[in-house]
Amino acid sequence: PLHDLELSYRPVDLRSMIDRTFESKLRERAQNIKRPLLGGGAQYLDIEVIPLPKESKIPVGAGITFRDVTRFHEMRLDYELTNQELETANEELQSSNEELETTNEELQSTNEELETTNEELQSTNEELETMNEELQSTNEELETLNNELNQRTDELQLTNTFLNSILN
């Protein structure tokens, strides 16, 4: 009898699935049932119980199908892991984009400050050029005055010499 076999309750309770199938006359399914293997791994199974009807519509038995879906289970786990890694990468990318935007804004602000400083320096340079021109003009005037003073000093010395000669 099935109820005496270990298979009837491992990896899932088949007896209750068979009973529900007989009562409802519909299929029963259990998906992604984990079955430990001797080597330490695991096998994943989809189990389906189908009533085998007789002409009187009372089931004479049940067909039990075990479908190995280990590969699909592993692929789904890989898919989920890849999705998590993708989400993490997207979050890091978004964080990097925000940092780049902040850095760009800071660079724009620094550029504006440098432009303002450059304008101030140009204005100061123009003022210094104007002051330099004024100083050159004042220097030329002073040279002219100095030349006139030298000329008058020479004339005065001549006059002094002449006066001394008269007095002598």
What is the CA-CA span between the terminal residues? Answer: 167 Å
Q: What is the 3D form?
A: rod-shaped
User: Approximately how much beta-strand content do the residues carry?
Assistant: 15-25%
Mean pLDDT: 91
Helix percent band: 55-70%
Please describe the biggest sheet, giving its number of strands, its sense, and whether it closes into a barrel: 3 strands, antiparallel
Q: Describe the strand arrangement of the main beta sheet, using strand numbers.
A: 1-2-3
The poorly predicted ranges are none
Q: In words, what does this structure look like?
A:
This protein is of the alpha+beta class and 168 residues long. The protein is 65% helix and 17% strand. It contains 2 helices and 3 strands; from the N terminus they run H-E-E-E-H. It has helices spanning 14-24, 70-167; strands spanning 28-36, 42-52, 61-68. The protein has a 3-stranded antiparallel β-sheet, sandwiched between helices. Strand 1 (28-36) and strand 2 (42-52) form a beta hairpin. The N and C termini lie far apart (167 Å). The relative contact order is 0.05. The model has no long low-confidence stretch (mean pLDDT 91).
Offer a few descriptive terms.
about 15% strand
